[in-house]
Amino acid sequence: MTRVLVLGAYGLIGSEVARYLCAAGYEVTGLGRSDSAARRTFPEGQWIIRDLADMKQVSAWDAVLSDFDAVVNCAGALQDGARDHLQTVHVEMVEALAQAAAKLEKLVVQISAAGVSTDASTAFFRTKAQGDQALLDSGAPVVILRPGLVLALQSYGGTALIRQLAAFPVVQPMALKNTPIQTVSVKDVAFAVQQALSGHIPDRSVLDLVEPSSHSLAEVVAAHRQWLGIAPARFTILAPRWGLKGIGKLADVLGRLGWRSPLRSTAIDVLKDGVRGDPAPYRALVGDVAPLKDTLTGFQGGATHLLKARMAWFVPLGVAVLSLFWLLSGVIGIISLASATDVLTQVGWSEEVAKTSVLFWALVDLALGVAVLYRPWVQRALAGMLVTCGIYLVSASLVTPGLWLDPLGPLVKILPVMLGIAILFPLLEER
User: Fold this and answer.
1) Is the four-CA dihedral 44, 50, 53, 59 of positive or negative sign?
2) What is the pTM of this model?
């Protein structure tokens, strides 16, 4: 069995699985919806660019599966949002895949999650459980792996939140500090997938991938502080449980705009319930996965990730400030239309042309201030801001050069704005 299709192969788990299998000699093809993310994450692999949301029919899988010996499903979403629909990706797509795999007798390795249940408190766990059951009911050869909190050198979702919390100097913000957590290295997840593909894990196995013992969330965060090279916190600031609901709801609203915040209500509810599983069945077949301390020790360059963790707090603040800056700029331009028009008429512009120009650029400012709040548009909005700033600088320097000497520095202040926009660009790249 050498030809493997990895669904979601540029995600946190999928990218590690794809690279691991490729290094182990498998012919790996990834499937994902973003060509740019695919080529950036796994350039050495082959790719099928397709949106899994469009593959809810068995016929959509028939031609695809015929070229492979097995499928590893690493695709998933935490919560419904602008680009994600749990019922589609976790259930409907998996049902179609299961039926096609059963018909063609193709092995499916399903990456699920520890704690899934049809009566779970979150839609994430419920829909994952439905997808798992659809595979088991289909008659297809299947192995279901249910990882605990997955730790990787790169971070996303819950692991990103833990690093952000751990990155605070001196103090330690914390909520749900006693929540029990069992972790697993993404490397152990990839190894378990390879064990399933090679036949060392029997068909129809359902296995939790969790370390032998659990830790409190406070202990997990403290371990990450040490890995990041930060001194232990001098004191802890505990967030009240009642405040988490409001934070989650706000993050959910942002999720509808495409922002996949690790503070969304599903992530908070999962932490409230704890992340636990039974390590015994996997231990009996393969062995124990690495405990938390060994996992972090195996990740090199913890200090190099400290800046990224701290800058992650800058991203939402930076986007909010930029949006406010451009919205206010547009509103002030409209409110101060007469005075802004006078500046241009004093250097020879006709009143009609001056007024039209001020209104046009005020509307541009308003459009950019709104566009930057919508995640799928953010890169284009930032590019538009840089171009607009450049136009302002050049045109004002030519038409009203005296503004460079204005005590309030309207032109000088554009330079740090452009720098802030440029800094946000790499921070907002898709994973």
Assistant:
1) negative
2) 0.82
Are the beta carbons of 107 and 69 closer than 8 angstroms? yes
**pLDDT tens digits along 179-237:** 999 999 999 999 999 999 999 999 999 999 999 999 999 999 999 998 888 888 888 88
Which CA distances in Å does 33 have to 11, 157, 262, 379? 11, 19, 22, 18
Judged against a pLDDT cut of 90, whether residue 279 lies above it is answered with: yes
Which range is most confident: 163-167, 295-299, 356-360? 356-360
Q: Enumerate domains of the chain plus CATH numbers.
A: 3-300 (3.40.50.720), 314-427 (no CATH)
| Phi/psi-derived region of residue 105, left when phi > 0, alpha when psi is between -120 and 50, beta in every other case | left
Which amino acid makes up residue 322?
A: L
Q: CA torsion 6→11→17→22, rounded to 10°?
A: 70
Residues in the chain: 431
Q: How confident is the model at residue 83 (pLDDT cuts 50, 70, 90)?
A: low
Beta bridge partners of 47: 30
Rounded average pLDDT over 90-96:
94
Nearest to 364 by CA among 320, 319, 326: 326
Task: Give the whole-angstrom CA distance, residue 214 versus residue 162.
Answer: 16
Number of H helices, E strands in the chain: 18, 13
Residue 412's CB is within 10 A of a number of other CB atoms, namely 13
Place of tokens 């259930």: 91
pLDDT tens digits for range 335-394: 999 988 988 898 888 999 999 999 999 999 999 999 999 998 999 999 999 999 999 999
| Spatial separation of the C-alpha atoms in residues 145 and 112, rounded to whole Å | 6
- Per-residue b or e along 64-91, where b marks 16 or more CB atoms closer than 10 Å to that residue's CB: bbeebebbbbbbbbbbbbeebbbebbbb
Q: What is the rounded distance in angstroms from the CA atom of residue 114 to the CA atom of residue 417? A: 45
Q: Which residues share a beta bridge with 367?
A: none
Q: Is the dihedral of CA 252, 254, 259, 261 positive or negative?
A: negative
> For residues 388 and 5, what is the distance between their CA atoms, to the nearest angstrom?
44
What's the rounded Cα separation, in Å, for the pair 207 and 288?
12
Q: Pick the closest to residue 385 from 431, 421, 336, 345 (CA basis).
A: 421
